[in-house]
Amino acid sequence: MQSSYTREELLACSRGEMFGPGNSQLPAPNMLMMDRITIMDPEGGEHGLGYIEAELDIHPDLWFFACHFPGDPVMPGCLGLDALWQTLGFFLACSGGPGRGRALGVGEVKFTGQILPTNKKVTYKIHMKRLVKRRLFVGIGDGTVEVDGRTIYEATDLKVGLFTDTSAF
Amino acid sequence: MQSSYTREELLACSRGEMFGPGNSQLPAPNMLMMDRITIMDPEGGEHGLGYIEAELDIHPDLWFFACHFPGDPVMPGCLGLDALWQTLGFFLACSGGPGRGRALGVGEVKFTGQILPTNKKVTYKIHMKRLVKRRLFVGIGDGTVEVDGRTIYEATDLKVGLFTDTSAF
Ligand SMILES: CCCCCCC[C@@H](O)CC(=O)SCCNC(C)=O
Ligand SMILES: CCCCCCC[C@@H](O)CC(=O)SCCNC(C)=O
């Protein structure tokens, strides 16, 4: 596990080049929701079980501003939420889990502020609460989304699993 | 309020033509996550406060299958969740609320199955639990996502508000 990852490394992960065939991939653009991972600390966070920080640079030509909504651009809350699953899932895959990443759910989500084309930077933060490393790898954590330093989304019990066989879903 | 809406009507809503300037719009493609609303009953549902059903036709060339994930196509869970906020928000706007729609959160989300390019139809169902029609319109409801008749996502306390002034966020 590295302590940080560049956009080029995240894109290689989305192509399946980081963890190999049958294992986890990040989504590729347009679903990839981060530009870099700045902190990955397997013993950090509120519970000492892992802390991850990732970033997305905001610029007005990001694809979702044009369609959400026409004339009233705001980043879809669901995409910021997906970024939290992506960040947590990447940590899980880096922790050695085999299989493909699937989001399994989230406890409670609150959106108290919005991300506009005039903003500069979005920061995703995950505190791992539980990491199950059995046949099935599952990770649970709490996450926040900040825009230019202000916390605007909060999500508890984000849950991602890694599946060597996804046919049972 | 009509009892059903076609894709053409939903697209007109996304362009701002249904509710007029400054009022609610659905997201336009690629963020619009439904093809039609089949049932809209303001007195239906488990609580008699409203029931809405919407559909998305699945075909392998939907944009998100190519990037999520390359070689391992599955519909992003966050987009199915957004569809539930879209469905609830549309009901709220049809209930007469002025202002622009913003998702405010969700209680608990569980993904127990996946949507693949080989599937045919996704159905979104919302049971309204609460509808506040003050200066600020807020709607809360429970929702499910079904794929070809099987319930695979469940979400409680989906919350959307309509804001005549979004600058306070
Ligand atoms: C016809 C009415 C339709 C309302 C549609 C709401 C659907 C969601 O896509 C909204 C967000 O994600 S809004 C952005 C997240 N929330 C905030 C406060 O920024
Ligand atoms: C390097 C590892 C990255 C894992 C990324 C998970 C990010 C999400 O975009 C996953 C879903 O939405 S999976 C689809 C929803 N869940 C199911 C069971 O279908």
TrEMBL record, chains A, B:
Its EC number is 4.2.1.59, 5.3.3.14. Pathway: Lipid metabolism; fatty acid biosynthesis. It catalyses: (3R)-hydroxydecanoyl-[ACP] = (2E)-decenoyl-[ACP] + H2O; a (3R)-hydroxyacyl-[ACP] = a (2E)-enoyl-[ACP] + H2O; (2E)-decenoyl-[ACP] = (3Z)-decenoyl-[ACP]. It is found in: Cytoplasm. The active site is at 68. It holds the Pfam family FabA. GO terms for biological process: unsaturated fatty acid biosynthetic process. One of its GO terms (cellular component) is cytoplasm. InterPro entries: FabA, FabA_FabZ, HotDog_dom_sf. It comes from the Bacteria. Keywords: Cytoplasm, Fatty acid biosynthesis, Fatty acid metabolism, Isomerase, Lipid biosynthesis, Lipid metabolism, Lyase. GO terms for molecular function: (3R)-hydroxyacyl-[acyl-carrier-protein] dehydratase activity; trans-2-decenoyl-acyl-carrier-protein isomerase activity. Belongs to the thioester dehydratase family. FabA subfamily. Homodimer. Necessary for the introduction of cis unsaturation into fatty acids. Catalyzes the dehydration of (3R)-3-hydroxydecanoyl-ACP to E-(2)-decenoyl-ACP and then its isomerization to Z-(3)-decenoyl-ACP. Can catalyze the dehydratase reaction for beta-hydroxyacyl-ACPs with saturated chain lengths up to 16:0, being most active on intermediate chain length. PANTHER family: 3-HYDROXYACYL-[ACYL-CARRIER-PROTEIN] DEHYDRATASE, 3-HYDROXYDECANOYL-[ACYL-CARRIER-PROTEIN] DEHYDRATASE. This is 3-hydroxydecanoyl-[acyl-carrier-protein] dehydratase. The gene is fabA.
